[in-house]
Amino acid sequence: MKLHGYFRSSAAWRVRIALNLKSLKVDHLARHLRKGEQRAADYLTCNPQGLVPTLEQDDGTMLTQSLAIIEWLDETHPTPPLLPRDPLARAKVRAFAQAIACDTHPVQNLKVLNRLRELGMAEPAVTAWAAWVNTEGLGACEKLISNEPGPFCFGAAPSLADLCLVPQLGNARRFGVDVSAYPRLLRAEAAAKAMPAFADATPDRQPDAE
Amino acid sequence: MKLHGYFRSSAAWRVRIALNLKSLKVDHLARHLRKGEQRAADYLTCNPQGLVPTLEQDDGTMLTQSLAIIEWLDETHPTPPLLPRDPLARAKVRAFAQAIACDTHPVQNLKVLNRLRELGMAEPAVTAWAAWVNTEGLGACEKLISNEPGPFCFGAAPSLADLCLVPQLGNARRFGVDVSAYPRLLRAEAAAKAMPAFADATPDRQPDAE
User: Fold this and answer.
1) How, if at all, do strands A27-30 and A2-5 pair?
2) A68 and B91 in contact by Cβ < 8 A?
3) Which among A140, A170, B42, B158 is least buried, having the fewest CB atoms inside 10 angstroms?
4) B103: nearest CA partner in chain A
């Protein structure tokens, strides 16, 4: 399989962690988002949204959207599981993941920030926008798991929630957010970062890192 | 069960359709988003994000995030199914749903539009922002199912994809988008709207409709 991604994309980063946890090797194809390579005609046939990641199967089938890709990986390669078995526990993990993947990340991704720039927003205000989005999202996430024992977001092993959290904390720091306000999230991040599957997926360790 | 929602919220609308398709009756509690009721202290203990919907179980357990709620409903009340059985087919349905629920709806929801207003954006530009987001999202969605036979987004029965599509088309029209550019989406919407489960979930049929 081939993963079309970008070292800094937090959505691609989530999928890299999942592939590592499942011990799946894929070819990594970089689409340079800042150079607009995700809008090239050949890529839009893979992913009509012009976003990364896309997981390309050996038969040419294209899977898009990071959470959909990760659930597919979990259904076809169930060990180790990325979701609990109990429906209620699954719903809690998915809700946490979606608080990041729906309500946080897409509101501060490169496409939205570039649109704000095109509309005349000055760079400090663009950064403040991204910081606001991260503060709102991570503040809610901190509360969502405040009563969960940990050390990961939900229990003793990483789940889809941690796959979304770790890259989003990376974004938050990049936009100058003081993440010390989120001690429970940082505890989950520390547990995750001690695992090679997470450590090997960070942007600075990717072949296209700058 | 109780559904905390708002007649015009497209995320709550998705869950209303799912409940109707599963023939599940719940109490509907309106949280008036334009009056800020979703930020009341008692509601933030239910949903730390201050968003609707929240599905409150009889034992007080709170489920948040529309897609997580719908997947929980599908796992606990499997008939009729809202996702196919085949993992690859499930991934395609989820990716379509997430193209709306992650990359479209949250970038044009009330919270984001209000932030743009607070930052000094004039009302026509706010509407243009929301129209841009819908045009980008629905344009990609049209391509994602262009080769699917239909009449629904994916096949002969409604799925999670249709639950996301129908409310988003409602949003798009509200922001002045010319949806005639999306004939395949409109075909799926027409099939859906012929079903009472979809017809009874529209904003104008809710007790809190204005």
Assistant:
1) parallel
2) yes
3) B42
4) A106
Give the gap in angstroms from C-alpha A142 to the nearest C-alpha of chain B. 9
- Whole-angstrom distance, CA of residue B199 vs CA of residue B144: 25
CB distance A19 to A209 below 8 Å:
no
Q: Which among B65, B103, B140 has the least Cβ separation from residue A99?
A: B65
Global pTM exceeds 0.80: yes
Domain spanning B87-197 has what CATH number? Answer: 1.20.1050.10
Q: Does A148 touch chain B (CB under 8 A)?
A: no
Q: Do B175 and B127 contact (CB within 8 A), yes or no?
A: yes
Q: Which residue of A has its CA nearest to B78?
A: A87
Please give the residue of chain B at the shortest CA–CA distance from A89. Answer: B72
B-chain residues within 8 Å CB-CB of A102? Answer: 65, 67, 98, 101-102, 105-106
Task: Record the tokens describing residue A35, joined without a space.
Answer: 């150079």
Q: Do the domains spanning A2-79 and A87-197 agree at the CATH topology level?
A: no
Quick one: CA dihedral A37, A41, A43, A48, positive or negative? positive
ipTM over the 0.90 cut-off = yes
- Determine contact: B181 vs chain A, CB below 8 A: no
CATH architecture group of domain A2-79? 3-Layer(aba) Sandwich (3.40)
Judge: A101–B105 Cβ closer than 8 Å, yes or no: no
Neighbours of B190 (CB within 10 A): 12
Q: Is residue A27 helix, strand or coil?
A: strand
- CA dist., res. A94 & res. B97, Å (int): 14
Per residue in A74-124, pLDDT (tens digit) is 999 999 999 999 999 999 999 999 999 999 999 999 999 999 999 999 999
Q: What is the Cα–Cα distance from A128 to A126, expressed in whole angstroms?
A: 5
Name beta bridge partners: B79. none
pLDDT band, very low/low/confident/very high, at B33 (cuts 50, 70, 90) = confident
Domain boundaries, chain A: 2-79, 87-197
H helix runs in chain A, sequence order? 10-21, 41-44, 66-76, 87-101, 110-118, 123-144, 160-174, 183-193, 196-199
